[in-house]
Amino acid sequence: MSAVLEVSNLRKSFGGITAVNDVSFDVREGEILGIIGPNGSGKSTLFNCVLGQLMPNAGEVRVDGKATTGMRPCDLNRLGVSRTFQLLQVFPQLSVRDNLILAGQEHRGSMLSRLFGKSDAGLGDAARKMIDFFQLSHLSDEQAGALSYGQQKLLDAAMAFMAGPRLVLLDEPAGGVNLTMLAHLRERLRAYHAERHATFVVIEHQMEFVMALCTRVLVLAEGHIIAQGAPQDIRRNPAVIEAYLGGQSA
Amino acid sequence: MASFIQLLVSGLATGAIYALVAVGFSLLWQTSQTINFAQGEFVMLPAFFILAAMSAGAPFWLAVLIGIALSVVVLGWLFKVVIVDPMLIYGVLPLVISTIALSLFLKEAAKDFYSAQAQPFPTLVPATDLEVFGAVVSTQSLAVLLVAIVTVVALHLLLHKTRLGRSMQATAQNPTLARILGIPVQRMVLYTFLLNGVLVAIASILITPIYLAKFTNGEVLGMAAFLAAIIGGFNQVRGAILGGLILGVLDNLSAVYISSQYRGAFPLLILIAVILLRPHGLLGRAEERSV
Amino acid sequence: MNRLGAIALGAATILAIVAPFFLRRYGIYLISMWAVLTIAAIGLNLTLGYAGQVSLAQGAFVGIGAYTVALLTQAGWPYPAAFVCAGALCFAIGWCLGYPALRVQHHYLAFVTLAFTTLVFLVLRNEEWLTNGIYGITGTARPVLFGWSTGSALDFYFFCLGMLAVLAAATWWMLRSPWGRAFLALRENPLRALSLGLDTRRYTLMAFALGSSLGGMAGALYAPLVQFIEPNSFGLGMSFNLLLMVIVGGSGYFFGPFIGALVAVLLPEWTRFTEGYYLLLYAALVMALMAFCPSGLLGLVERVSKAMTRRAPPPSKMRAEGTNP
Description:
The complex is a heterotrimer. By secondary structure, chain A is of the alpha/beta class. Chain A contains ten helices and ten strands. Chain B is mainly α. Chain B has one domain: ABC transporter involved in vitamin B12 uptake, BtuC, CATH 1.10.3470. Helix content of chain B is 74%, strand content 3%. By secondary structure, chain C is mainly alpha-helical. Chain C has a domain at 15-233. In chain C, strands 1-4 form a two-stranded antiparallel sheet. A two-stranded antiparallel ribbon of chain C has the order 2-3. At the A-C interface, helix 2, helix 3, helix 4, helix 6 and helix 7 of A face helix 8, helix 9 and helix 10 of C.
């Protein structure tokens, strides 16, 4: 299996603080990789470097073999890399359906052709299917801002999937979601993964979510990778337990 | 050569004034996201405060003190409390619009409540000429240069050698970090506004004898502030100073060596060139991409 | 658009068509000016309200459009060709101007457009061989279209009104397309939009270029309306005026420019008694408006109508939530 994502010797410092220190890892096609670590371990910075939100000081990021270090997020997205956000980032004034059409429209034809094409960029059916998949059908015409927190999280994931990405990076998808919705979200993510053979990378704090969803886990602490392997092994790893001392443990 | 020195000296003098205005402008931008489009009018106004005080009977030196005090209170504190703070909640764009409206308001207020005519303004020193290396240089230029240099040096000492100044700089460069380090960020921001009030007042006193007190002064001076700050690199105080000096010298040189009709064009073209080739300015640090 | 809005629009349209018959010459001139300035304001609204960029060059683009049409028709070009040329030229200039400025952040476009406006003024004033300098250009001919002469005040007003309708409809159509959705995303959450593949830079540039083009087209109507154009009319003053129009009407609202332009055209007339203090009043009003309701008059209307028709929260909100952030 080829590597969808390759991160090599990535380093990012802010002034005197090195948030990500010489981190390297691969993500193979079809994997669900979980990245965990205590607060301040550099997970978010790592994510932002991969996604083009931050420019790393050193190192390289490759998607499907193509160098993408420092590429603009919109160009990265067009290569098939998608993301969800830790803090909710749906478009509150648009309807659920419009949010999804927006999520897919930039992948349909050129900017000019979109001006002269249909108002929904031909995505009406695809949007409906995605809404049904996430069981949000009764909310299709509601303003996204009126949805509950958990529903917006589902919408966020739906938007990330809309353009049929190769690689999806999920930033703390479980944050602030109640248990029922959490189970539903996890189940939908697994279903999507199975159906589309997608590749996921998940940053999470909540151990249970990670253990139940991920096929492989990577542990960051203070900017370094301190362990990687199958979830059950990570759970028992003494270095990991120590890094998490005082925090949420397995 | 002689006339070149003349131009250089007067250019540096004007440039130093631009530098003061540009520094205030860029400090406001850095510390509180305030892009003050009324900065030019802020320089125009203190002269009118002083003239009003003088016509109420105060001697020049007292009027100057009153002018500086009024500038600090009205253009510093009041500006922050009445306009900037309430607007920032809505975002940077509404604040920008407000300062644009403010610049119009101040301009019209000066025109309507004082005079639409250009008013003479007392110089700091009696206007005589000196000979330096065969060039004729006015004492006024030298006085302006002296005062401006002293102010810039004092500013530099304040910002780099005092604890207060370093706190202000920290607040300008990274407010979140500054807060974590225990710096009272809100108070530092207030000080920046008050400092700007002082800087624009000094600039006003220095430049108005040359330009005369006109309600339209703000347009030119504001533009000079923006250009200097951007060309020099507004995320460094040194950049604003350098930008101001360059602008002043170029302005004077281009009036003579390039057609005086297009005198104003040269700095504008430089602005466009800087934005195209080196957007963070000559001395600015390349900024972290945020989007 | 809700029922009340549709009624208001209908009434306004009827008023726009019927009013000139009850007005004298100066009144017809005023409403023609309203129509022309609304076109320029619609353009600026695209740039400011939809793409969130401050442009201080809209006045300069009106000037470029006006001079283009004045000079070309003088040289014998038919008016429609000159009109299109004005729009195309301003689009191209807008694109070239915006391209470097929008590659960086921090509202650099505001400064670049400020510099540009001054440059345009200098060129218009100095290049007398082309523009006649400060003496200006008089007597730009009003077009004859398919046999209909727009020479009279009334006829020209209907021509301006017609152009306004056409250009407003085109803008409306554009905003209904995926581009409209993209602009909204750009305004609401550019970070998210980027992560969805939306090239925020390209769309912002497009909004600015289109906005500038509309400014040029407004200028193309301005020249034959006013019959005397000179460099001073198109400086920062007009740019500020247009900016305030968009803000007062409500930036980002489709009909904001219409209302803003109306206020800008009528205010000097109504405040004649204040003897020239009207700009001061205007600026003070704008600052007060920004403090109280930054989304302008239409924003105020929306706020009031929302308060009056407060709905019951949708059922989805009433479901019990477990953990909340």
